[in-house]
Write a structure and sequence with these properties.
Chain A has helices at about 10-20, 50-60, 85-90, 95, 110-125, 140-155, 165-180, 220-230, 315, 330-365, 390-400, 410-415, 425, 440-455, and strands at about 70, 130, 155-160, 180-185, 190, 190-195, 205-210, 230-235, 255-260, 275-280, 290-295, 300-305, 370-375, 385-390, 405, 410, 430-435. With about 450 residues, chain A is α/β, with parallel strands linked by helices. Chain B folds into three domains: about 1-85, no CATH class; about 105-360, 3-Layer(aba) Sandwich (Aspartate Aminotransferase, domain 2); about 365-495, Alpha-Beta Complex (Aspartate Aminotransferase, domain 1). In chain B, β5 (about 260-265), α11 and β6 form a beta-alpha-beta unit. Chain B is globular, with a radius of gyration of 26 Å. The complex binds pyridoxal-5'-phosphate (2 copies).
Chain lengths: ~450, ~500, ~500, ~450
């Protein structure tokens, strides 16, 4: 009988007595007997903690692909970045972990200030003045951006570059079933979005920077297109890129969304991650989710509080800008710590290190006979699309046997044809990425193994 | 060294242990040239940015983040943590939020390299452990809710709601059925109506009756063939069980609508009664409330959605599936509404939930609910002689007080009592929710608090009430012992300072 | 439920965040029948105590420990932690204690299952990693101190001292030399004389001269053939370098004595000057001061002892040794004094120290010492205009103020200033040590504090001094913002309550 | 250049300027040039944290015997007990970890109260009224007990049962070189101490309960012997035994010492561990180390402070009761948490589970043809001495290949002849132990493997 319940037998009896009840069952008298479950739940008996430890260690050991067993060259929106012990130690402090949403600011300054610092950092990274306190992940942040864009522009025509991560596109399409937005996906040409067919009024134009093949898009052109079509410009950005490349804000984007996992969150099999969202001041009252503002307390001391709450669902209900309530604050706190640890120089070095590693991989690849860059002349940031002689999924299988998570098979993301690639190719496209954690020696070994595996 | 006299240094006076100063922001602790980061030695050539990128892509300048030493980073964040209340410090009786104690072993499990270190794009043959966790969890959640199958993708309750509404839509559309309204009781949580709008439906609100439950007659009056469904929380947000649920279900089903169960209050009924058996078709669960995910200051959570058999084919996908004995793979439901998360959902939250469920077992989960309900009723009874209970009859896992008469007679509001309670060592209950109760104070003690703690809480309420009557100024000035006093919320909204740069 | 009104519950008012109440002891939170523990399911027959043991061995009753839920345990301990100052919360300028920031990675390393999970009795072929760590650390420590070999067994500085004295004894005895005195300067740390007694020697104290260093003439006067050796700290406990060390060494060696180096202050001289090069024969190091072991509220530490070549054969053992390239084994020195620890020493502390040393490298360690000395001199200079510095000349890693004139003129003592400083957000410096300085306040800023923090500390000193002169009552009443105010120490000693049962 | 130093170049220059110096080297002008190291330290360059992680992971992986790789049946004073996540999480809170000795009680109530609770728990476990705030480990605690006993009794004749852990005996003998105590070691007979030769005045008599072969000694007889010889009775006890067996205090012991590692501290390759020390009220002013007492603050609130400080070295110097300064407080804090987690019932269950496991192992062993109990009829607690056909160290080697840390070779502890065993046997004695973490299935597998390995 493993549980965390404090009630002793004597207390149980006395508490029931206080209520004039003679059994716990009577606590549920309001539930019609016919509805009550007449049996116990059909589950195994409770397992004491130490047995549960053993069990989950066994389950974990069945994940042959974990990054402590295979050297990770997979990216596509989830990155094997450094998770320094200091950030882990701080982000796991129980005051942050076991707090609720900071509704009572007097006893929640810790979380509130951490979010305020997070907002400031994300705003600076995005080049935009406003950032919220986090959304679920990059994909759902994009959904919110599309909703905001449609509301702001008044047009529900949404043009989506197929360079946007296929999963994100799929999520946008799913939620459009409810909102009724018209989603138009435009294809790529030589690895970059081909906007030539877009004409007329648009509500929102979404571009990824870099796109999921790693390609750097011409954001000036997108800005011009937005001006021309009346659309809000939404950039689904890799936030790490801002360490060396122009930020979305610098191009005049109205909204930046991104995946913040790389800032202090483990690969985690895809979640919980961290949805980043930044926008112009003009859109602040349409901002989805929570925002923290600075103010003072009764004694005039600086204090923080969630503000502009009249956008939120608990107050605005069906007229709210979004339905988000629980978000990913703990990851935002971790990100603010990780970004504090990186600092100005470290953030730049991080971007450079990823770029250098990717470039080194690309260079070494040039001698391969079985694997070639899909778009060898394209400017890329930290993602590479590689054409392999063997099907990519087979390459990944073979590489795993050699100790590598070689990357992601493009076909596993798109699950079907994809406007960003011509169909013939899809099954032979391997998406690889390099973070600051990969050494030259590791990349050399990867290249060596790939030559054989890709054949 | 005069500029120093202005610069923030490593004083601990901002932490409660030594003082009550404000903690400087990390930007104020920053000094150009300081740093903490350390990267691996890679041996890769140090190409410059210019060598690697076209000039047109390059940023003009570095992104200015903080520049602090590791020591200052640690002190800053540790001090921030000392300015934060949490379950681990004491009771947190926030109604509707289920701020229970969550076992630490779940943190350890979520940190296992074999779980936390897995790339979500790794193929199924490399992630069998994860898929097994998902399949096992789905099965357990279905047993607890009495449903057929579930998606684990939604990242929180609200995401689950919207997913559920899209499932309704897909179902009706598959039947060639165009419906436009969703019925919601007036006691519903704000995410419900917000999700309805995003799901492309209109909200029809039904009032509560004088017992705090859905007014059955009023419900029947708004039902019709254009009703896609109803969203209910049961027990509802007043902590009361909707006793007419069978009749409600029949009425909604009669007009071809579906029943959506907002499972945020599942903590009250595990092993006692199941949404499926009540007639619900779709259920979302807040794993972060019922199943061991500490709330993280606002998240993360997980909001799996379980459905009855007729909706299974529409579930989001791909879904982890046992395709052969002990062999797991991703399978896309035939008429899936598609993907609702960037990857597979908040996986680590799912692993925590499964661990919690397995530690407890079926009997243990029922015990959790029993004790949650016992504690809520005990505090209801204990306080009912001094406060007005909004609907004073046996409650489930939470109870709502109304302080309307206190406000009328003494000019002290629910929020004032809430603030005063903090001085006594308790987090405030939920205030002003549900909206249908005037001056609502909503208490959810949860099952992990002892009767001694409940008694101390009750006494704190009594002290606050006594002050409200005899020492009103003290209550209005509360809290006075916290890191900051009452905060000027109006100014925050009026003079918006949303970043350090906006100051 | 009247007994409840007296029972302790889970209020957070004892944590500084919400109040200033005392925290109940775990025994007061205890309720018969409550529990937290969970053991593995072993499947072993549940024999009773009576079935397993002779009645004469059996306890009459259970040992009454606390009976608390895991939830209450967590809240209790977390609240206790909020009543505790620490380096991670702010500057901790305790002289002689080197309360620097220690990198968190060392905690992670000390927690690796492959290190923390190793049984100390496992044979060498199963513990090659550990032996390699020990051998590598020994080599690094010898390079830093300029010695030949070291034992890693002593668990702290004082244990190292005693070990060193036993080595002296063994050495002299091996030479058929019976000696009975050890010379110690009057500024020495209390462990030095205490260890001398336990080593079977008598203490001869030499005074310090007016420069704060060993009085050379006085030293020479007490030297003689019955002197086994001298124990010195250099820099000494005033933070001053014994400039005559070469002459001291020669004088002691001349009478056949050995020089023992108390390495507690090694943080000041790494890469700059080495005890071995100064003429010392035996050196203990406080790894917990210089090399990355957070102090743990009183320990653990590690006090390895390094020696010059003529003492190697006497070292405690067995010692980890590289017996073949990359192959490690335990080897007993031929004339070993024996074992001074139950196993191999405080191994996890040793692993932390090695990690710290390797992260820094030789240059990094020198930088540590340079900055430690720079910070100490900066604060000395900064404060010298407002306070009397005990020996006002360039110091090493710490500086001693004398508040004698303040006490004389204003009746405010060093301890009062120390307590007042806490209100400003700083831990107090060391007070009343070294004993030779009247009203001593000893400041060791360490290298990890920024100049902004030093400036804030200096300003806090100024505020305290201003209060001492103009608002004396405030200083005598300090600290007023801490979890408890000044504590009645006399009562604690008079009415001894050393356990909950002695109340 | 990996370090944790905050000084920027500009600050360095300005700080040196403030001191009137032009280089950092001048900071060391007080150090005679001739003594200064004229070269850099002869060490590898600094290794960034992530590389250091990799390195220590490699070193750790060379420890083939860690308990996550071999099932641990070794004991002999270091036990593979449950370390529940909750205790680890609490004991590693940085407020405890990064605090100094609680010299300023106003900001050290957390550590002080934790020690006070620890003292209470250890006192209850020992059956004695006074316990200190911890010593280094069990062995050095025994040295302190011997010193106390000699000071108290006025006789330096110390009689030590050879049932005391061989390492502890060796440590006592080492330190006796300084104090000059006469140590007399008495042998065992059939596994239990043979006191028959002890006559005349003694200062201290030390007995282990259980002794290192697991045997339960007749402590009533030891008490009588102490009364007869004037000696203080010191029991080196396994504190876990008090969960089911009579405590040292119940037998009238004057001092109990013990190893507290089993309460919340990992195996740790032998340290840091936790020296337990409890004694009678009569001896309180001779107590070594720190002690915390309850008192009040200026406002009358309950408060804790270190007390009876006049015993300690920083005040009493050469006349101090002990030279201990730094102790093992963090382990004491962990122990108080672990004992809080165990609670009254858990503490008893722990003792019972260890006893049951050991008994089960002994029972299963009865059918072995290659390994037999050394003293089959002796009453034991959680330790078993097994006679193996093959030399014990060889058995351990063979068992490691099968996944077990089979135990400890008695010869590795004694390193030479031992009065507790006759020499012929020594190399064939395997010491094994079972904790609450071993299952019947694991023990069955062990027995099966041992049959072959011990042949
Ligand atoms: C009744 C109810 N429904 C829905 C929700 C929304 O859940 P989430 O915050 O996970 O989006 C909540 C949570 O606050 C709730 O209490
Ligand atoms: C100068 C000096 N010597 C010796 C010691 C004793 O070291 P430990 O506390 O590790 O026994 C100390 C520590 O306080 C010290 O400062």
């Amino acid at each position: 009988m493993a549980d965390y319940l404090p009630h002793t037998e004597a207390e149980l009896a006395s508490m029931l007595g206080f209520l004039g009840l003679s059994s716990t069952a009577e606590l549920f008298d309001a539930v019609p007997t016919a509805l009550q479950l007449s049996r116990g739940l059909d589950m195994a008996d409770g397992l004491p903690e130490p047995d549960t430890s053993v069990r989950f260690n066994e389950l974990a050991s069945k994940n042959l692909g974990s990054s402590d067993r295979l050297l990770c060259f997979a990216g596509s929106g989830a990155y094997d970045h450094e998770l320094p012990p200091v950030v882990r130690a701080l982000a796991s402090r129980s005051e942050f972990v076991t707090a609720y949403t900071p509704y009572q600011p007097e006893v929640a300054q810790g979380v509130l200030q951490a979010i305020f610092e997070f907002q400031t950092m994300i705003a600076r990274i995005s080049g935009l003045p406003v950032a919220n306190a986090s959304l679920y992940d990059g994909a759902t942040a994009l959904v919110e951006a599309v909703n905001l864009g449609v509301a702001s522009s008044g047009s529900s025509r949404v043009v989506l570059s197929s360079g946007v991560h296929p999963h994100w596109r799929q999520v946008v399409e799913t939620f459009a079933q409810g909102t009724g937005h018209e989603i138009e996906v435009v294809g790529l040409k030589d690895g970059l979005t081909d906007w030539s067919a877009i004409e007329g009024t648009c509500g929102v134009i979404v571009v990824a920077q870099p796109n999921y093949l790693g390609g750097l898009e011409d954001l000036d052109a997108v800005r011009a297109l937005c001006d021309q079509t009346g659309a809000l410009m939404v950039v689904a950005a890799d936030p790490v890129a801002s360490g060396v490349l122009k930020s979305p804000g610098a191009y005049g984007a109205d909204v930046m969304v991104g995946e913040g996992q790389g800032f202090g969150t483990a690969l985690s099999f895809g979640g919980p991650y961290l949805g980043l969202f930044a926008c112009t001041t003009k859109e602040i009252r349409r901002l989805p989710g929570r925002i923290v503002g600075e103010t003072v307390d009764v004694e005039g001391r600086r204090a923080y509080v969630t503000t502009l709450r009249t956008r939120e669902q608990d107050i605005r209900r069906e007229k709210a800008t979004s339905n988000v309530c629980t978000n990913q604050t703990l990851m935002a706190v971790a990100a603010s710590i990780q970004l504090g640890w990186l600092g100005t120089e470290g953030f730049r070095e991080l971007a450079l290190a990823c770029a250098r590693g990717t470039r080194y991989l690309a260079n070494q690849l040039s001698s391969s006979t079985t694997a070639k860059l899909l778009h060898p002349n394209m400017s890329t940031f930290r993602e590479l699309a590689i054409r392999t002689n063997a099907p990519a999924s087979l390459v990944i299988e073979r590489m795993a046997a050699k100790g590598f998570l070689a990357g992601i098979a493009a076909s596993s993301l798109t699950r079907g044809s994809d406007p960003s690639l011509d169909d013939a190719d899809l099954n032979h496209v391997l998406l690889a990425s390099v973070t600051e954690r990969r050494t030259a020696a590791e990349i050399d070994a990867y290249i060596l193994a790939l030559e054989e595996a890709a054949a | 060294m005069s500029p120093l006299t202005q610069a923030a240094g490593g004083k601990a006076s901002s932490a409660p242990i030594m003082g009550r100063d404000a903690e400087p922001t990390i930007f104020e602790l920053s000094q150009p040239g300081r740093s903490s980061f350390q990267f691996r030695t890679t041996g890769i050539q140090a190409w410059t940015a210019e060598e690697m990128f076209d000039a047109r892509f390059l940023a003009d300048s570095k992104v200015p983040l903080a520049e602090v030493s590791e020591r200052d980073l640690v002190a800053h964040v540790t001090r921030l943590s000392h300015r934060q209340f949490s379950v681990d410090l004491g009771a947190y009786p926030l109604g509707s939020c289920t701020m229970k104690y969550n076992p630490k072993i779940c943190d350890t499990i979520a940190g296992l390299p074999g779980l936390a270190g897995v790339h979500p794009g790794a193929p199924a043959f490399l992630t069998q452990g994860w898929l097994e966790i998902m399949v096992t969890l789905e099965k357990a959640l279905c047993e607890i809710t009495g449903m057929e199958a579930a998606t684990l993708q939604p990242a929180a309750g609200a995401a689950g709601e919207l997913t559920g509404l899209l499932l309704m839509r897909a179902y009706h559309e598959a039947n060639g059925d165009i419906r436009r309204r969703i019925i919601i009781p007036d006691s519903a949580h704000g995410t419900n109506p917000a999700s309805v709008t995003l799901g492309g439906y209109e909200v029809t609100t039904v009032p509560s009756d004088d017992r705090g439950c859905v007014d059955l007659a009023a419900l029947k009056a708004v039902l019709g063939p254009d009703v896609a469904g109803i969203m209910l929380t049961n027990p509802n947000t007043l902590g009361l069980f909707e006793e007419d649920i069978a009749e409600i279900a029949a009425a909604v089903h009669d007009v071809g609508g579906l029943l959506y169960y907002d499972g945020a209050n599942l903590n009250a009924i595990m092993g006692v009664v199941r949404p499926g058996d009540m007639g619900f078709d779709i259920v979302h669960m807040n794993l972060h409330k019922t199943f061991a995910t500490p709330h993280g200051g606002g998240g993360p959570g997980a909001g799996p959605v379980a459905v009855s058999s007729r909706l299974v084919e529409f579930l989001p996908g791909p879904r982890a599936t046992e395709v052969d004995e002990g062999v797991f793979d991703w399978v896309m439901p035939p008429r899936s509404i598609g993907r609702v998360h960037g990857w597979h959902g908040n996986s680590l939250v799912l692993a925590r939930a499964l661990a919690y469920i397995e530690i407890h077992g079926g009997d243990g989960l029922r015990r959790v609910s029993e004790r949650a309900v016992l504690n809520a009723n005990w505090i209801r009874r204990r306080l009912s002689s001094v406060f007005d209970v909004a609907f004073d009859r046996p409650c489930m896992h939470e109870v709502v007080l109304s302080l309307a008469s206190l406000r009328k007679e003494h000019g002290v509001k629910a929020i004032d009592i809430a603030k005063r309670l903090m001085e006594e060592g308790f987090h405030a209950p939920t205030v002003y929710f549900p909206l249908i109760v005037d001056e609502a104070l909503m208490i959810e003690p949860t099952e992990t608090e002892s009767v001694q703690t409940l008694e101390a809480l009750a006494q704190a309420f009594e002290v606050a009430l006594d002050d409200a009557i005899n020492n009103k100024e003290a209550v209005l000035a509360a809290p006075r012992t916290t890191p900051v006093g009452r905060v000027d919320e109006a100014r925050a909204a009026r003079q918006l300072v949303q970043t350090f740069d906006a100051r």
